[in-house]
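Researcher: Structure for this, please.
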Amino acid sequence: QVHLVESGGGLVQAGGSLRLSCAASGRTLSNYAMAWFRQAPGKEREFVAGMHWSGASTSYADSVQGRFTISRDNAETTVYLQMNSLKPEDTAVYYCAADYYGSSRADKYSYWGQGTQVTVSS
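Model: Predicted structure, token format:
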């Protein structure tokens, strides 16, 4: 069982930056593939970024490539999403997810955080 807690969301102007954190309580994330998803009102949850359990590879949605970076701390208990050059269309609730096998499909992940709201004003 993995309990995930996101933080770091907020209101930012277009062009600004935010860093989201996803902390695992009670255990490390070293054996889990991690991912960030987001869901805007009236839309389906979509893949944003993912990291292989080893940390050796990452992947990104085309819409955030070059602007967002997923990373993990050395203690392997927290995963981050650094978001730069934010756009109004990035506004959504952002969720982190974990599972043994990585995927860009939300239904492949067993463990989810509660989400954190990111709002980008124009």
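Researcher: Any notable elements?
Model: The chain has a mean pLDDT of 95. The chain is about 0% helix and 50% strand.
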